[in-house]
Write a structure and sequence with these properties.
Largest interface: B-C, 71 and 87 residues
Number of helices of chain B: 3
Oligomer: heterotrimer
Number of strands of chain A: 3
Structural class of chain A: mainly alpha
Distance between the termini of chain A: 86 Å
Largest sheet of chain A: 3 strands, mixed
Helix content of chain B: over 70%
Strand content of chain A: under 5%
Shape of chain B: elongated
CATH class of chain B: Mainly Alpha
Number of domains of chain B: 1
Order of helices and strands of chain B: HHH
Strand order of the largest sheet of chain A: 1-2-3
CATH topology of chain B: Helix Hairpins
Structural class of chain B: mainly alpha
Distance between the termini of chain B: 50 Å
Chains: A mainly alpha (635), B mainly alpha (98), C mainly alpha (360)
Shape of chain A: globular
Radius of gyration of chain A: 30 Å
Strand content of chain B: under 5%
Helix content of chain A: over 70%
Number of helices of chain A: 25
Radius of gyration of chain B: 16 Å
Chain lengths: 635, 98, 360
């Protein structure tokens, strides 16, 4: 089951795998170094870069398909990063079923979002810089998923953190955007600390940080260390994937341009935590506690995210809450163990499509309504923006799990697996599915149906082709993704430790759980229509709302909890240290300085400045030394 | 016989040392340094004769070369100081102290 | 100690030179005039050179005389002359307890050194003459050593000397403290001064102009017969008695008087007039006659003649007397007639430029 693949040496196309990373990295560097020279055409080469990477990845994928399933792991060693003592850290690319799926998702969705951004950012004076950062992100994310050891993975991990920071605060002239970028950066550091601790432990325990060595050595790890490493990895995953308790940054991250939200904060970067957990399956296999922790964190987050999604009026924040929720599903699946890995990745891929689709759709709506994000100002947009409506609707059906849409397959698997592993978790996941249906219905109704509540002077219109063509592509992915992958992904991922799924065809088996799930979803949709579809939605958010809505509007008080639990104690500690410094350290050092100064003032008198005095001193010194020598000879 | 030369050299050296310490005129101080160097040279030559090897004379020769270089630098420094301070007394240079 | 069976030439040399050297050293320290100290040092060095010669070191003997006494010490003397030829060092000690400390240090060093060198004498035997002979001579022996065993030290001294030479040049070169003033700026400044305070912008008059001598001490005379203040260096003005204008004019007056006494004797001067100026004019004849008796200073008279000619072409017959007697109003070029050069400092206009430098 956990037989790790023995990587084989790279030949053919795999030798050029480094180009997948190098192309966007070089383009990003070019755009940043050449500066304004590339203002005119920079976005075109920046868009071509991920497409080129996608083509290479696709060729590599086809090659991998042609190999027997047990040799589908190719290592492409590049160079030795450093060798210190007994440690030798090589930079090598690992192309196996898991990483190639990620590469395809990143470059594929990334390319589509690049194309979309050409239209979306057309009027921004810093469009070239935006594309440079996007390419930087693509390169860093590819390093993250292609690395064959944890240390190189960490480089990519930090790289995407940097790119995320730069892009969230891309409109840094807005104080809220600058603060959001800073918040994301700081909270990510907490997770990075966990990853560092885990990598250090691995280096100390196994003498290497490569996946192969960790997989091979994990079984010898003591329970205590395994649990420690597992929880540290979980902390890292929480930070990067915005899971409770490090979830607060993701909602603020919506300050960034919408394509960034779609690419980084929905489709790719925030799923890095899931990737990390799946990649470290060998460790979690030996620590039930950490595994359960992953599952619990996932479940809590999926409910919290759904809760937040129900109560927000900002369309992007609703989607952000839904992203947290969906990643919670993935974490839950990853926490179930090998039985859930394939489902986690499956849901990750389908979510990558339909969430990117909906974010870009939201961007299209904002584009058409003058950058408004408040859903209470929308309504009846389905006629004004038909393409956006249709594509968004496909995404909607996919996320709520409408039959034969992609979310239907992937989410059902997770709920089912959760029931098998822990019925309690399964029930919670099921409730989450219902809530998801509720808030997504709310979003659809408030945005595209009902009466037009448009702000005066706003004339919604369909976006240009460069923006709706990507929407169509992603909508197609959202629709057929589940059917295409359903029978295949379990077997495909089997070599990296996932258990093959039970469903082998695109036609789902009808089970009682599937029926219940559908019923719950239908109930959620009905409730949503009942609350928001029957009567007009007020254009101003009502004040008198239930306590549940209030809590949800305040992000479940995540910021306040962190402020009182972490920030204030930290400040108090800082003040205490400053006080100790003032009262203890300062007088001690000043006193020492005073003693030295006083001594110096006395000794200084010997230095009267007269050369002749110095000469006499020297001569007397010579005599004394000579006498000492004579005396020592005599004695 | 050599010890007589040695004693002469030591006496000259001591006179030079005392002069060096007592006098205030930078030029005279410099001459006293030269006197001490000459005393050392005398010792070199005397011992060269004493041991019957030429290396002592060699050393004296090098001392002269170094002394010549030293005199050039020293005198130009004295001239420079004189130019700015109108004095060659070393006691006037106490302003250099920290 | 060694008994000296008979007094050898070396011993005689030693005793004479030792006494001279110690005397010289003591003199070096005690004389208060640096020049005497330097000469005493020369005495010491020469004495030592002789001792070198008697110790089988003829090469060092020569080097000591030529390089040390001849070059280094002369450099010393040169600097002594440069910086303080007339300085007198005070004997009084200014540092409290310094003399005592020096005495203690001196005695200590003397004792230690005697102890050391006397110990070093033990065990040695030999004569450098044998080494000299073995090498075929003292110079050959030293040369052999320089270019074999000591060749690196020798090369290093070469570098040292070059460095010292360059360093001396750098040190002795005076720093340019202010920006150098160019010719244009000087001219502009001069004219500005002329515009503001009327200082004459042109060169000062030469010494000897209008006078009967071209000696540097002879002041120039202005057309009115007074002395031009700027024509003689103030140093000379202070030191030398610059002639009284009356005295300078005395020969001239004599000649003039003689001419006036003679009356108008035109025939004698006829030839001279034709050859010199070819201008038939009574005034010029008078002038020429006045210069003819004074044959001993032909240059001066020619100068007089040339300079006076503008005045002499004036129609008045007594042109010379006009120039000599009452001061004309035409003197307006910044030179106020001064009776005495020593009194120049009284005139504010004159002391601005040239004088301020020398009088402080």
């Amino acid at each position: 089951m956990l037989e790790t693949l023995t990587p084989i040496a790279a030949t053919g196309i795999f030798q050029y795998a480094w180009l997948i990373i190098a192309i966007p990295a070089v383009v990003a560097a070019l755009l940043l170094i050449l500066g304004r020279v590339t203002n005119g055409f920079g976005h075109w080469i920046a868009t071509l870069a991920p497409i080129a990477s996608f083509v290479i990845a696709l060729v590599a994928f086809v090659q991998l398909l042609g190999l027997p399933s047990q040799s589908r792991a190719v290592v492409d060693p590049l160079y030795t990063w450093f060798a210190s003592g007994t440690w030798q850290i090589d930079v090598a690319l690992l192309i196996d079923p898991l990483s190639i799926l990620f590469v395809l998702l990143i470059t594929g969705v990334g390319s589509i979002i690049h194309i979309y951004s050409i239209g979306y950012m057309a009027d921004d004076p810093n469009r070239r810089r935006f594309f440079a950062y996007l390419n930087l992100f693509i390169a860093a994310m590819l390093i993250l998923v292609l690395a064959d050891n944890y240390l190189v993975l960490f480089v990519g991990w930090e790289g995407v953190g940097l790119a995320s920071y730069l892009l969230i605060s891309f409109w840094a002239e807005r104080p809220s955007a600058a603060a959001a970028g800073k918040k994301a950066f700081v909270m990510n550091r907490v997770g990075d600390l966990g990853l560092l601790a885990a990598v250090f432990t691995m280096l100390a325990m196994f003498g290497s940080s490569s996946f192969a060595a960790v997989d091979a050595g994990a079984s010898q790890l003591s329970l205590g260390w395994a649990t420690f490493v597992g929880f540290m990895l979980l902390l890292a995953a929480c930070g990067k994937s915005a899971q409770v308790p490090l979830q607060a940054w993701l909602l603020d991250a919506m300050e960034g341009p919408t394509p960034v939200s779609a690419l980084i904060h929905a489709a790719t970067m925030v799923t890095a935590g899931v990737y990390l957990v799946v990649r470290s399956g060998a460790i979690f296999e030996h620590t039930p506690a950490a595994q359960l922790g992953v599952a619990i964190v996932g479940t809590v987050t999926l409910l919290v995210g759904a809760w937040i999604g129900c109560s927000k009026d900002d369309i992007k924040k609703v989607l952000a809450g839904s992203t947290m929720s969906q990643i919670g599903y993935m974490m839950l699946a990853a926490g179930i163990g090998p039985a859930g890995y394939a489902f986690a990745i499956f849901h990750l891929l389908t979510h990558g499509f339909f969430k990117a689709n909906m974010f870009l759709g939201a961007g299209s709506v904002m584009h058409g309504t003058g950058d408004d994000v408040n859903m209470r100002h929308f309504g009846a947009l389905r006629k004004a923006m038909p393409i956006t409506f249709v594509t968004f609707g496909i995404g909607y059906l996919a996320i709520i799990g409408f039959p034969f849409f992609s979310g239907f397959y992937s989410k059902d698997h997770i709920i089912e697996a959760a029931f098998h592993a822990q019925p309690a978790l399964g029930v919670l996941a099921l409730i989450g599915a219902g809530v998801t249906a509720f808030y997504m219905t709310r979003l659809m109704l408030m945005t595209f149906f009902g009466d037009a509540r448009w702000v005066k002077g706003v004339h919604p219109h369909e976006s240009p082709a460069v923006m709706w063509v990507p929407l169509v592509l992603l909508a197609i992915g959202s629709f057929i993704g589940g059917m295409v992958l359903n029978g295949w992904i379990g077997a495909w991922l089997a070599p990296i430790g996932a258990e093959a799924g039970e469903h082998a065809s695109w036609l789902p088996e009808i089970t009682w759980l599937g029926v219940v799930t559908l019923l719950v979803v239908a109930a959620g949709v009905a409730l949503g229509w009942f609350v928001f579809g029957r009567r007009p939605v007020p254009a101003v958010a009502p004040d008198k709302v239930s306590i549940i809505t209030t809590i949800g509007r305040h992000d479940l008080y995540g910021d306040q909890i962190i402020d009182h639990g972490v920030v204030q104690p930290g400040l108090a500690l800082g003040r205490g240290v400053a006080l100790a410094d003032e009262l203890g350290v300062d007088p001690a050092t000043d006193g020492l300085g005073w003693v030295v100064q006083a001594t110096g003032n006395q000794v200084r008198r010997l230095q009267n400045g007269y050369v002749r005095t110095y000469g006499v001193t020297m001569a007397i010194g010579v005599v004394l030394i000579g006498l000492a020598l004579v005396v020592s000879r005599l004695v | 016989m050599t010890e007589l030369y040695a004693v002469l050299a030591v006496i000259l050296f001591t006179i030079g040392l005392v002069g060096f310490l007592v006098r205030r005129n930078a030029l005279v101080i410099f001459m006293c340094v030269e006197l001490m160097l000459n005393a050392a040279n005398l010792l070199f030559v005397a011992f060269s004769d004493h041991y019957g090897i030429l290396d002592g004379q060699m050393a004296a020769f090098f001392v002269m070369v170094v002394a010549a270089a030293e005199v050039v630098i020293g005198l130009s420094i004295i001239v420079m100081i004189f130019r700015s301070r109108r004095s060659t007394s070393v006691d006037n240079e106490t302003v250099l102290k920290g | 100690m060694i008994l000296i069976p008979m007094i050898s030439g070396t011993a005689v040399t030693f005793w004479i030179c030792a006494v001279l050297a110690i005397l010289g050293a003591v003199g070096l320290v005690t004389f208060t005039k640096p020049v005497y100290s330097a000469l005493c040092l020369a005495l010491v060095m020469v004495s030592l050179a002789v001792i070198y010669a008697s110790l089988g070191a003829p090469f060092l003997f020569a080097v000591q005389i030529i390089v040390y006494t001849g070059a280094v010490l002369m450099l010393f003397l040169f600097v002594v002359m440069l910086v303080g030829v007339d300085t007198h060092d005070s004997i009084r000690e200014t540092l409290r307890g310094h003399r005592v400390a020096v005495a203690l240090a001196g005695i200590g060093v003397l004792a230690l050194l005697v102890l050391a060198v006397v110990q070093g004498v033990a065990g040695g035997s030999g004569n450098v003459a044998q080494a000299n002979d073995a090498a075929g001579g003292n110079v050959q022996g030293l040369a052999g050593l320089i270019f074999s065993r000591y060749v690196i030290a020798f090369e290093a001294t070469a570098a040292l000397l070059i460095t010292a030479a360059v360093a001396a040049m750098v040190l002795a070169h005076p720093e340019q403290l202010r920006r150098k003033i160019g010719q244009t700026e000087r001219a502009a400044k001069r004219l500005e001064a002329y515009a503001e305070s009327g200082v004459h912008p042109g060169p000062q008059p030469n010494s000897g102009v209008f006078a009967r001598h071209n000696s540097i001490a002879t002041p120039a005379l202005l057309p009115d017969g007074t002395i031009a203040a700027g024509s003689v260096s103030p140093v000379l003005a202070q030191r030398v008695v610059v002639g009284d204008p009356e005295e300078l004019w005395a020969p001239h007056d004599e000649v003039l008087a003689a001419i006036e006494a003679d009356g108008d004797d035109e025939e004698t001067a006829e030839g001279l007039i034709e050859s010199d100026l070819a201008i038939e004019d009574a005034q010029i004849e008078v002038l020429d006659e006045s210069s003819t008796p004074d044959e001993s200073v032909p240059d001066d008279s020619a100068a007089d003649q040339g300079e006076d000619s503008p005045a002499s072409v004036e129609p008045e017959p007594t042109a010379v007397q006009v120039a000599h007697g009452d001061p004309p109003i035409t003197v307006d070029d910044g030179y106020t007639p001064a009776d005495d050069l020593d009194d120049e400092s009284d005139e504010p206009k004159k002391t601005t430029g040239k004088k301020g430098k020398h009088n402080d």
